[in-house]
Design brief:
It comes from Paracoccus litorisediminis. Keywords: Lyase, Metal-binding, Zinc. This is GFA family protein. GO terms for molecular function: carbon-sulfur lyase activity; metal ion binding. About 10% of the residues lie in helices and about 40% in strands. The protein has helices at about 30-35, 110-115; strands at about 1-5, 10-15, 25, 40-45, 50-55, 55-60, 65-70, 75-80, 85-90. It has a 6-stranded antiparallel sheet. The protein has a 3-stranded antiparallel sheet with strand order 1-2-5, with no helix packed on it. Strand 8 and strand 9 form a beta hairpin. It is globular and about 30 Å long. Bound molecules: zinc ion (2 copies).
Length: about 120
């Protein structure tokens, strides 16, 4: 299933191909700082992500092991990727389609800061 996504100003746009688009929420310290509180994201394969427009994507290396991608124009939070990983976490809100995410009880997926000891 193919899905399109973009940042607020559309300087960065992408299409992704994945069997499912399950949204997760992360409450780790880094995501809280980065997103405002809860970062909602969808994990897809990096090689299934195609940039249809890349006119301002900035990668911020917030640790030695992972980077966060955001739009340098409008500031939209877009990606989290462990260096060299086959996967990338994409902001759920960047997708054009609704992801069906319902924020509920806090979840702490094995991801981002704690799991990797970043
Ligand atoms: Zn933008
Ligand atoms: Zn996190």
């Amino acid at each position: 299933m193919k899905a399109q996504g973009r940042c607020l100003c559309e300087a960065v746009a992408f299409s992704a191909r994945s069997r499912a688009y399950t949204a997760h929420e992360c409450h780790c310290t880094h995501c809280r700082n980065w997103s405002g509180h809860v970062w909602a994201y969808v994990c897809v394969r990096w090689d299934k992500l195609t940039f249809t427009r890349d006119d301002g994507l900035v990668w911020y290396a917030h640790t030695l092991k992972a980077r966060r991608g955001f739009c340098g124009h409008c500031g939209s939070t877009l990606f989290w990727r462990r260096n060299g990983s086959a996967k990338v976490d994409v902001s759920a809100g960047a997708f054009d389609m609704p992801t069906g995410l319902r924020l509920g009880a806090p979840s702490f997926p094995e991801n981002h800061g704690d799991y990797y000891g970043l």
